[in-house]
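User: Structure with beta-D-fucofuranose, tokens only please.
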Amino acid sequence: MKSMKRRALSLALALTPFAGLLPQAAMAEKPLVLGFSQVGAESEWRTANTESIKSSAKAADITLKFSDAQQKQENQIKAIRSFIAQRVDVIAFSPVVESGWENVLREAKAARIPVVLTDRAVDVKDDSLYVSFIGSDFVEEGRKAGRWLLEEMKDKTGPIHIVELQGTVGSAPAIDRKAGFEEVIKTDSKFKIIRSQTGDFTRAKGKEVMEAFLKAEGNKINVLYAHNDDMAIGAIQAIEEAGLRPAKDITIISIDAVKGAFEAMIAGKLNVTVECSPLLGDQLMSVVKDVKAGKSVPKRIVTKEGIFPMEVAKQELPNRKY
Ligand code: GYE
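Assistant:
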């Protein structure tokens, strides 16, 4: 009965003399609306990630409602609630911290709006609260940093004193990068983490905390492990201001592999960076389309990435996209 009605309607449309002149927009499908809550603009990585999401949405003809949480969970929760109220088609977000998401995710589920996690994971018992998580394996990134250090220092006698600049407290990359690194270095007791504190993933905080480390430990520090390049770059300034030579007096390892890190390596001030790709936009848009088309999507999509020591920096920089 229904289909007969539809057929009659399309016949009527085809017969109207103006059918061919109907405005395109009225005939085309409505574009999907994606609400995206970003962490903030704390690092070069994040800027590249935001740019990737915006340009991929445009290319995929998805209407993007973008909201910047300025590194505050309460702002992300507000943004998600507002996306629910606006009845967007899909919600995606990069959770600033791991815990505390159950309530708002349940609200999205009750409203039948699928949620996709990008970049950072959440710690929830019920994994039906999101459809997919696209992002890096942060534990593996920490292990790569640790393995590089083990190899680099294999002929050195201990103790080797390490200071650690952690990412945002409670965030998945800070928790996992710490765990992966520790798992590897604890296989050799000559490695000792003597100080570990958060620098919130920013250059300014990285510099400030490194100044405090240097004041407290002075020439004792052999290695700096920074959870991202921006904090390492801030710390490099602090090391130079203290009259020490970065990458020589203190071996520096960081994560992300943004252009700023390549420039620091070419300048001989950073020893190595582990890659973490922020270019998640295209994958996110295809998951959004598949979810709305009722296709099944993988629960976990892991980003592929490498590691770049300073020796290859000059040759690699022209190939870098972020
Ligand atoms: O490493 C850091 C950013 O969540 C992977 O957040 C991301 C991290 C990235 O601020 O630079």
